[in-house]
């Protein structure tokens, strides 16, 4: 969960807000993971992001890849108020402190 100040839809910088919000969401998906996207904000911005993270959208790769990771269909929804968003839950995970040994990695095919 995060928040981002954006320009109004009538501002010349609105397209920059759409671009930045999309990139921030994409970064957070790869950094933290995500099985669904819940948006709250200006309707025009939310509509643009819903399209971008949907079939044929700019972030279609992420929308197709997340279900492969989580095993459930990807969804994008918009809520009317911030209070309707789920509470943020971030649990720190200690991954070990020994740097020698085997590593496990997976390639999702984007590179």
Question: Can you give a write-up of this model?
Answer:
This protein has a two-stranded parallel ribbon with strand order 1-2. It has helices at residues 14-32, 43-52, 60-70; strands at 37-39, 76-78. Helices cover 36% and strands 5% of the residues. With 111 residues, it is mainly alpha-helical.
Any key phrases for this structure?
111 residues, mainly alpha, two-stranded parallel sheet, 3 helices, globular
Query: Count of DSSP E strands?
Result: 2
- SSE run: HEHHE
Task: Tell me the radius of gyration.
Answer: 16 Å
Helix content: 25-40%
Mean pLDDT score:
91
Brief rundown of the structure:
The chain is mainly alpha-helical. It is 36% helix and 5% strand.
């Amino acid at each position: 969960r995060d928040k981002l100040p954006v320009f109004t839809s009538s501002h010349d910088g609105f397209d920059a807000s759409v671009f930045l919000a999309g990139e921030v969401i994409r970064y957070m998906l790869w950094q933290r993971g995500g099985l669904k996207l819940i948006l709250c904000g200006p309707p025009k911005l939310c509509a643009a992001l819903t399209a971008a993270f949907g079939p044929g959208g700019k972030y279609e790769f992420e929308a197709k890849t997340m279900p492969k990771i989580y095993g459930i269909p990807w969804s994008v929804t918009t809520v009317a108020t911030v209070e309707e968003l789920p509470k943020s839950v971030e649990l720190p995970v200690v991954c070990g402190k020994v740097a020698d040994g085997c590593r496990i990695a997976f390639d999702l095919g984007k590179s």
